[in-house]
């Protein structure tokens, strides 16, 4: 029985190992990861938003921090919406009414948020104050 040259044997092992890795679905490209966004607001007006964050917690933290900075003090803002690879919107009324919505486009989210806000019977139509998307 002929012996295989040691370098040829090592090359064959390496080639087989690499072929196994390439065929292994665990090593396949998983595609785009999460892209979280969030919208925060406070009852007395003011809002903050975030998009393109790797986790929901990071998106909420960024939106709340932006809202708190706008309010001039921390702890006054609440998360109103969060979304992953989609769009969110916040609409507000003239007496503190608000509505949020999540949709596949910024326009659709804005329209749905205004409809939800208007359902609280403001004296004037609600206005969309922010409509933002997190990349897909």
In brief:
This protein is α+β, with helices and mostly antiparallel strands and 136 residues long. It is 35% helix and 29% strand.
Radius of gyration (Å): 25 Å
In whole angstroms, the N-to-C terminal distance is: 58 Å
**Can you tell me the residue ranges where pLDDT is under 50 for at least 5 consecutive residues?**
1-30
Identify the strand order in the major beta sheet. 2-1-3
H/E series: HEEHEEEHE
**Protein structure class:** alpha+beta
The number of E-state strands comes to 6
What fraction, in percent, of the residue positions are helical? 25-40%
Count every helix, treating DSSP H or I runs of 4 or more residues as helices. Answer: 3
What is the beta-strand fraction? 25-35%
Structure description:
With 136 residues, this protein is α+β, with helices and mostly antiparallel strands. The chain has one domain (36-133). The protein is 35% helix and 29% strand. The protein has a three-stranded antiparallel beta sheet with strand order 2-1-3. It is flat, with a radius of gyration of 25 Å. The relative contact order is 0.16.
Keywords:
136 residues; alpha+beta; three-stranded antiparallel sheet; 3 helices; 6 strands; 35% helix; disordered N terminus
Q: What order do the helices and strands come in, and which of them pair?
A:
Blueprint: H1 6-23, E1 36-41, E2 47-53, H2 56-71, E3 78-84, E4 87-92, E5 98-103, H3 106-118, E6 127-133
